[in-house]
Amino acid sequence: MNTAHVLLVDDEPVFADVISKRLTKRGVNVITAFSGDEALEILAQNKLEVVILDVKMPKMDGIETLAQIKKRFPLVEVIMLTAHATIDTAIEGMKLGAFDYLMKPCELQELIGKVEKAAARKREQEGKIMEAQAWKKRKAMIDR
Amino acid sequence: MVLVSFTPLLLVTGLILEQYNRSYREKVHAHLGELVERHSQNIDAFLTEQLNLLRFFVDSHPFGQFRDESFLELKLAQLQLQFGGVFEDLGVVDDQGIQVDYAGPYKLLRAHYTDAEWFKKALEQPYFISDVFLGLRGTPHFIIAVRQEYMGRTWIMRATINFVAFNNLVENLRIGKTGFAFIVNKSEEFQTKPPAGYIPRQDHYSRFRNDENGEKKSIRIVEETDETGRDHIYVGAFLKKGDWLLIYQQDSADAYRDLNHARRIALLIIFMGGLAIITKAIFMSRRMVARIALADREKNLMNRQIIETGKLAAIGELAAGIAHEINNPVAIMMEKAGWIQDLLEESDTQQIDNRKEIDSSLEEIKNQSRRCKVITHKLLSFARKADFNPQPVQLNDLLNEVIGLSEQRVKYTGVTIDKNFSENLPPVEASPTEMQQVFLNIINNALDAMDKKGGNITITTRNIKKRITVEVADTGPGMPAANVDKIFEPFFTTKPVGKGTGLGLSICYGIIKKLGGDIDVESELGKGTTFFIHIPVTNTAQKSVTTDKEGIIK
Predict the structure, then answer these.
(1) pTM recorded for the entire structure
(2) Closest chain A CA to residue B341
């Protein structure tokens, strides 16, 4: 299985740090960001597949960040990380196009499982697009 | 209120009574007037008849014949025979006032009438009817006289009218118990016999005469109060071209007997009606006051309930905030422990002393973190449900949640909870928060009751005839019957001061009643207490069986 490229967004550096370390140890390629703005910047510069997004953040919150991500990087899959009280926002996030959601504190294995699924889906989507583009190219050549 | 009720009643009754009074009076007056008029005409006719009879009698015979006494006696006998005993005697009086001829029971031949009033008047007119007087014979009588010229002299034929016969004519006019009639002349002298005991007044004639000023009405009706304070009704009619006055007198009370009777009945009805109104008013105002007092009590309870639920919601929010804030550090702790485990696994540190102890400690940190997570999630779910809008509620799920919330206490009090849930319960339409409050309250009460000795709580759900019954039975000490009766009353508590408000169960009662349900309790000392909560299954709740699965904690 290919390494998944993940962006972890959480306003609490200690949490982001330890999760990032543990994921890296399990073969996930992780970059961390501590705010929504930073996350968008990093996404613009790096080719990433999955974003793990904390819902409750100061300034730009998770839902806002999600909307921006989906607008600018529609193929990037997002996993919402919520505390229980914001379950309604998690549902809202799902409606906005998030791949899944998880409740804090979560089991690491569960998180990795969801990340892998998300990455797989992203690749599948990309594959489909590539196929379609290839077909389009071929068709154009034949037409010519 | 009494005033408002009475005013129209009194107004209407007064008006009707007044109208009735007036019309009845008019009717009585008309009746009496007619009666008296007819009688006065009768009397007038009687007098005229007697006069005409005498004139005819005088005219039909040469006057010389009357000088014969035997002829006079014969004629008197004839007259008496023909007209009853009306004519008492006959007499011929010369212009000097000496009765020259006489036929009759009295010895009045050669009687001198020279100075008699009637004689003087009779000489002046062709015919004359005198007032009643005693005269020479000493009994009341009156005279009809006819003047006649004979042989160059003036003669007067006089006849005496039987007073009794005339009196009867007037006395016949009797109505009711107190009605009677009499005749007075211009000088207020009685012309007929007044009834025994009648105190005559001296102004009848003058009064009626004065009243008649300018008026041609033959009948006058006057109502007056006499000196003894009694009301009388007087009807007067003039006779004999105004010489005599026929007076009919009756007590007003007697004349208006029917009217007074009707008035008494009306007054009685008003009195009874008034009494009824007052009673009703008092009764109604009492009931109103009682109702207001009840409403007041209910309002107080409601206010308390609002405060309590408000408090609960506030606590819920606070708990949610705390739980949420705790989640992050707990998550970090859990991950850090995990990270240490990762590192230990990676490095070759198997030979480190107490490696096993370290491993088990890390595992325990993770376990305890998970426990924290469970607790915070329970708190959060409790707070999240702070919703007072009715919605379909699955009672089994809700009960599980409530049991989860009291799990810690259950453990420490040494109580076990048995669940005996009926599968596939239809949802009920209720506020989840309120339902939570009800069951939490009852379970907490059961736990309080078994605080010292421990015991068992059995929670049973059943679906019977469109009603879900939840039974919460404990094996606590139970309570006496006196307390069972009062248990749902607000502010009733058996807990020590400061421990209970006495509101919990009354609020539960209010919530369940509001849902159209019922709550009751059975208790036996030494055996335990069972609460029965019946909640109706509404059709709307049944239709929306699709419950919100997200809301249930796994």
Answers:
(1) 0.43
(2) A22
